[in-house]
User: Fold this.
Amino acid sequence: MAKNLVIVGAQWGDEGKGKIVDILTESADIVVRFQGGNNAGHTVIVGKEKYVFHLIPSGILHPGKICVIGDGVVVDPEVLLQEIEVLKSRGIFRPEDLLISKNAHLIMPYHKKLDTARERLRGDNKIGTTGRGIGPAYEDKVSRCGIKCGDLLNEGDFRLKLKANLLEKNHYIKTILHEDGFEIHEIYHQYMTLAAGIVPFIKNTSKFLHEAMGFKKNILFEGAQGTLLDIDHGTYPFVTSSNTVAGAAATGSGIGPSRIDAVIGITKAYTTRVGEGPFPTELQGAEADRLREQGGEYGATTGRPRRCGWFDAVAARYAARINGLDGLVVTKLDVLDNLDNINICTGYRYNGKVIDDFPTETSILLKCEPVYEAFEGWKAPTQGVKKFDKLPKKAQAYIKRLEKLAGVEVMMVSVGANRDDSIMIKDPFK
Ligand code: IMP
Assistant:
């Protein structure tokens, strides 16, 4: 029976979704990105080759699997074309494998300027965005002045929409930000040149997916970022500007929620966060440095060092609830191999009481002190292990505890960066 699976990040992004999507793509016919833009960075390592994708689903590494950039994504055409060029130069791009929704909104040059300028204006209250124009592009979408990929098919319409936007944006940029505005002809020519490379891929992807379901194709919906960065359910305002949770797979790709068969959450065996905002289990000093260096915890998009901390079961339970998780994949277990002691946060102490439900309010989260359960480290390599029962006993106990606390079955454990460094406990496609 065909299956439609949604993969989401269960933390603050960077959970290692790229690798898991790459593995699960073996059993899929189609891979769909449904939200976010090139703020995401999905790293996949195949043998000695490393690939970092920002926009194109990592499924593109599998010839013959169709990759869809869905309606809910914001597309920077320059970045998209660069990704296509890199794939071409490495001999793995097949034009027939890529489809872009006509409804996906375009990231425009003024969005990037607004993103970085707003961050500057926020000063100490900055969000720590990736500066890729994501927020302003979604703002325009919601305020109904956005320009869509489909508009690239109609030069006249594109120019009119651009003109209307620049009238307002240039005024704001010049008078409030005291920076130079944009010339309509420059953006127009730049985007019309870029359009030549993109237009062949622009399609009605919702209809395509609907028809594919009719042919019983397996579809993998690949989320970007993570649950706690969701615009509605994350740690607002320190979030991204899209819905990152499983529900967005339906709206962001134009399929009905009843078509989704299962939702899988990806979580690291510890926690990381990039950008600002509360992070209850965050570690400081040498302990954080050890996780960062061992785990190579530097942003795939911006190169920023990631903040590191212990696994947070309060947040994991919350992610299970908000996404309706059917299964969990635990990544980077091997990063903990050399530690003497490992902690799991089971609750927060807040105002003298222990709470076990994740509060999203910054003011509350900042005052939450993690309550830890201590584990002895297994102090043995896990990389290369192929079966769960071959893991060190203490590592098995750690995963089992994490599963119990999160309330979700662990289906896969990742013990290294390569495709092969994976322990499949239960294949979500089966
Ligand atoms: P934006 O999405 O660039 O607006 O950034 C908003 C927040 O989301 C910042 O804290 C970013 O660091 C964070 N963020 C955005 N994309 C990712 C991602 O792919 N992984 C982790 N954090 C992200």
